[in-house]
Every structure is written in C-alpha cells, then in structure tokens.
C-alpha cells in the first residue's frame, strides 16, 4: 500500500519530479510497477516542500485521489523547490480523518511518510502508545497507524536522536510489538533523507553533489536507480548515500 518519494536537488517545479516522469508518483497512484500490497492509491495524497530560506516546509494534502484535484496540477506546475516529500495513500482501514491521515506528516523542519501497515492495529501498539507522554498521544494528527509511528519517531527526534537512529529504533520497537508489519519509512528536513526498507520496495537515485532521490519505486527508467535491500536503513544527502542493515527484534 502507498507510494512515496523524497528528493533533494536543484530547485525546479514540483511537477518535474511528481508528474512529468513517465512513472512519476502521479502515475503510481493508479499504475504502480513495484507495489506488493494493494493496487490503487486513491485514499488521499500530499506533498511537502521547502522554500528557499525557510526551514519549515509547506504542505498541500487532500483526502481524494491526486488525479482528481485540479488545484494540485496548478500548484505542481508553478511552485519550485529543491527539496520535497510526497506520497499517495492506499488506506488500510476506513477512517474519518480525511486529509489529516494523508502524508506527509510534519513538525517543525520535518516531513514524514509511512508506506506499509502495522499488523494488529491498534491493539498491537497500545503498549508503545502508553509509553509516550499523554500530550503527544492526544496531539496525534490522525487515528491511524502511520500517525502513531510518526509520534514515536518525533519523540526520539525531540530527545536528540539523529534521523537514522530515530527511524531504526522505531522500526525495531514496532516490528517487535507487531511482527509482520511493513515499515518503509521516509523522513526529511530538507537537507538529508532517512528511510527504511522493511517489507516493501525502496529505491534510490544519486547524482553525487547534485541530486538524491529516495522512492518506493523508480519514476523513470534511468539505469542508475538502485534497489535498497530489505531490512536496511538509508541516509542520503546530495553528497552521499549510506546503507546500514537494520537490527531484527527478537522473534
């Protein structure tokens, strides 16, 4: 379920990455090539981007399919950014949260997306939720698994964890509490991207010093795309990409 992409590179219209490529996120909403779970991502979408000189990203999210929103087409045509995170959503269960349930979730400089599903939701993660401060649970953006996973990660970021460590520890805890979960996570502050491959596909394209793209699947047929092995943490900047195996929780 779901497809997402994060990009760091030269400033260009959002459409250059999200609409124009032959297999862009826009097309992946109805015709993904590598999606293992679900087929149509029509239960909401969102894009967050960073304007030059402003560390806090803007967001545009809707509860419906990306192809049915003419406002997005106009926005993507004229808004330029050198860093973004966007996602199209295939919901796991019915929800009344509307666009609040659509990624990217945000706080301060951070944008976050979850491609996957937590098994046994919500009961499986009740112990992890109970360990969070009450105000953080009450401030959840939506009542779905992705919003709680984001709360777990944000709690670690606020405590001083690096983005990679925050993702790795959250995956370890959630996978331990809910075995069989799919936890492909994507996090950016506009300068770096951290991501996990855990149960679904993840790819990256790196043009050293110029561009780094991390996505559920390639948006074109450039031969430089590389697939990330399952159970791997990726951290990318425009300068380099680092891959680190993720620790498995006890069975």
Automatic annotation (TrEMBL):
<dbReference type="InterPro" id="IPR052373">
    <property type="entry name" value="Gamma-glu_amide_hydrolase"/>
</dbReference>
<comment type="pathway">
    <text>Amino-acid biosynthesis; ergothioneine biosynthesis.</text>
</comment>
<dbReference type="InterPro" id="IPR032889">
    <property type="entry name" value="EgtC_Actinobacteria"/>
</dbReference>
<dbReference type="InterPro" id="IPR017808">
    <property type="entry name" value="EgtC"/>
</dbReference>
<keyword id="KW-0315">Glutamine amidotransferase</keyword>
<comment type="function">
    <text>Catalyzes the hydrolysis of the gamma-glutamyl amide bond of hercynyl-gamma-L-glutamyl-L-cysteine sulfoxide to produce hercynylcysteine sulfoxide, a step in the biosynthesis pathway of ergothioneine.</text>
</comment>
<protein>
    <recommendedName>
        <fullName>Gamma-glutamyl-hercynylcysteine sulfoxide hydrolase</fullName>
        <ecNumber>3.5.1.118</ecNumber>
    </recommendedName>
</protein>
<dbReference type="Pfam" id="PF13230">
    <property type="entry name" value="GATase_4"/>
</dbReference>
<dbReference type="InterPro" id="IPR026869">
    <property type="entry name" value="EgtC-like"/>
</dbReference>
<keyword id="KW-0378">Hydrolase</keyword>
<dbReference type="InterPro" id="IPR029055">
    <property type="entry name" value="Ntn_hydrolases_N"/>
</dbReference>
